[in-house]
Structures are given as structure tokens and as C-alpha cells.
Amino acid sequence: MTGLKAFLLIFMMMPLGHALMVVMNRHLDEQIGWGATSLFLAGCLLVLGTRWTRSSAWQSFLGAFAGVLLWTGAVEYGLLYAATVLGIAEVNGTAGEYRLMMHTWSFLLLLVLYLVMHESIRCNLFIWLRKKLHLTAKTPVTGTVINYGPRTAFEMISILWFFYVLLLLLYDETLLGVHHLLTYACLVLSLAFGMWLFVRLLRIKDMGFAIRYAIPTVIIIWNVVEITAKWGLYEEPWLTLDPAIMVVICMSFVAGVALVVRELVQPRSQRLDPRS
Description:
Elements: H1 2-27, H2 32-49, H3 56-86, H4 96-102, H5 105-117, H6 124-133, H7 149-171, H8 181-202, H9 207-230, H10 237-240, H11 243-264
Helix pairs in contact: 1-3, 1-9, 1-11, 2-3, 3-4, 3-7, 3-9, 4-7, 7-9, 8-9
């Protein structure tokens, strides 16, 4: 159940993150800059707060929230401001800020290259790539991670960034297009690989590890939601703020938070807390 609780928590962050932007855009008007700054500062405070707990589970929990706030406040609203100043208009349903984000692929490529080459990065994907590409020059770095908070926040931000750029490149009609074969392939692979990760997630007993593992699991599965919505199969209720559905989403998110926090406050003797 630990993995399922973590999945519910992270999964419900996705529509609520979209809904938060819609609410801010509709109601803050000239104060939108202050709203974005507040989100960014709240994310910074959460990351800083992780240094005062020795629990990897609490660090991961706070880091996941921090990642969403930092991404929304700094990246999404930063690009929205840039698109407004530069006069970048919407094209084929893609807003100006996302057109800008699509062209950050070169920066993202450098980040991925760094993560692949850096032997202290212990993500299973990068470890596998190093082995296959024969990039490991020595015994992999091991040891205790003192604080998972910043790592979890960075994980959330970097994975969101990667799949935003991937989908935007797929949607671009000058490159591929919404109905291109590769877009269909992305949906099928996201569903298949996401389900495989979900099954593995269900086996995890430590809440901190489960939260960190749930982040890529959820974001990969969320590609299916994004692509099918882009095809016009349904209207995204977190963008239209459909009252009934948003109440269900909010209640599910609160339930996810409550389940996770309940497990986190259990005595140390009743739960695992490995720093791996």
C-alpha cells in the first residue's frame, strides 16, 4: 500500500498544478508576478525546511511539493512573462510560453548529458545507460545521502521539463504533429512503461523511496492524459475548472496527503527508512 499511497499523492498533484495556474491567471491579473514569486519562495522554503528533518521520507515528501512550486513559480510563469514581453503568440493551440519551452531542448540535452556522465547520479536509468555505453570508469559512488529534499525537488523539475519538451516537439506541426506516428508511439510506450513502473512501485515499502519512484511513474503515465486531451477526446476539467470534478480531485489529493502523512508520523520502529 505504500507505493499506492505515494502514487495517489503525486498523481493528484498534476491536475491541481494545472488548476492552480488557471486560477491565478483568471483572478490575479496585475498581481500575477507577485503570485508567481510567492510560489517560488514557498518552494525555496520547503527545500530549506528539509534540512531540519533526518527522515528521508519527510525530505522526499516536502521535496516533491517544493519541485511543483518551483516549477510553476519560476519556470512556467517565467516563460509566460517572457512570451508576453516578446510578443510570442499562440500557434496551433500551443501558447507562447510553451513555444518558448519547446526551444529549451538544447539546454535540456546538456543537462541529460551531464546526468549520464556524472557517476554520483544513482538514477536507475542513468546507471543502465552508463553500463551500456561503457561510461563507468570506476566503482560506482556509494554512501549516505544526507538530504533527499533538494534531490526530490530537482527530480520533479527535471522530469517535468523533459516530458514537456518531448510532447511539445511531438505536437509541433512543422516537425511531426499531433497525429504523427511517433506521437501515437509515445502514447503506447508511456502507457506500457508507466504500468511497468507502477507495478514495481507497488512493491516498495519505504515511503521516501516510494515518493521518489512515484514521480517518474506518474509523469510518464500523465503523457497519456496529455496526448489524448490534445487529440480532443475530452475537455480537461482542471483547465475548465469543472466544479464537480475539481471537488473530487481536491478530495483525492487531500486523502493522498493524509495517507502519506499518517504513515510518515508512525514511530520509526514501525516503518523502514533506508537511505539508499
